[in-house]
Design brief:
It is built from 8 helices and 8 strands; from the N terminus they run H-H-H-E-H-E-H-E-H-H-E-H-E-E-E-E. It is an alpha/beta fold. The protein has a domain of 126 residues: 3-Layer(aba) Sandwich (Rossmann fold), CATH 3.40.50. A 4-stranded parallel β-sheet has the order 2-1-3-4. Strand 1, helix 4 and strand 2 form a beta-alpha-beta unit. Helix 6 crosses helix 8. The longest helix has 19 residues. About 3% of the residues have low confidence.
Length: 230
């Protein structure tokens, strides 16, 4: 089996270069073209959260936000709990119906998955549910403006953050929609699953403090654009 896999590798790489990186594979960062392996480096030693921190009361409450079709909420809740936080399952229907608000939370995590099966294109349906509801839009803006909160968007949730104008930072509404960084279709016009290496720079983010110069691979199924920059 290993011998057969080695024989197929050149053909597989050729197909990937043709379909995923049609113009300039190496320049586009296509790993197959360069024959590069994913590498990572951590400037700290990972460790489990101390047991006393997990047992302590008054842990920061974090809303694990999900929409119709989201599927990463349980894993995220488990990760937040393991980090010493208090995760709460919050559905968009809860916020829209007024059953709960963001006022009592220190963190907001928009999870991955495919809201509305992603047929509305990169979380646009999810973002629309927030931006087109005046009460909810004001609630999100108030949460973001507080000095004691943090937010995280993963996969489809990252697309949501971009469409809400929460990244790359600054005051909400600083950038018009046309200039807002966002995620778009790949140049190949198809789904791609390949590795893109990222580097953690100095940041005021509570999640990235003491994490500068960390490098690691992450799967990429789309591309981001920054109008006027990239």
């Amino acid at each position: 089996m290993a011998r057969r896999r080695r024989r197929r590798t050149p053909r597989t790489s050729c197909l990937r270069r043709t379909k995923c990186c049609p113009a300039a594979p190496a320049a586009a960062g296509c790993p197959d073209a360069a024959g590069a392996r994913a590498r990572w480096a951590l400037p700290w030693t990972p460790a489990w959260t101390p047991a006393d921190a997990l047992a302590a009361g008054g842990r920061p409450r974090v809303a694990v936000l999900r929409e119709e079709g989201s599927n990463g909420d349980r894993e995220m809740a488990a990760a937040l709990h393991a980090a010493g936080l208090e995760p709460w399952d919050v559905a968009m229907a809860d916020l829209l119906g007024g059953a709960i608000t963001l006022e009592g939370f220190a963190g907001l995590v928009a999870v991955g998955g495919f809201s509305y099966a992603d047929v509305l294109d990169s979380a646009k349906g999810w973002a629309g549910a927030v931006r087109r509801n005046g009460r909810l839009w004001a609630q999100f803006a108030a949460f973001r403006a507080r000095p004691d909160t943090f937010s995280l968007g993963v996969c489809n949730g990252a697309q949501l953050m971009a469409l809400l104008g929460w990244v790359p930072g600054g005051a909400l509404g600083d950038l018009p929609d046309a200039a807002q960084p966002r995620f778009v279709h790949n140049a190949s016009g198809r789904f791609e699953s390949r590795w893109a290496t990222v580097r953690v720079e100095e940041s005021p983010s509570v999640l990235l403090k003491a994490r500068a110069v960390a490098r690691g691979p992450g799967p990429s199924s789309g591309q981001s654009i920054c109008p006027g920059v990239l």
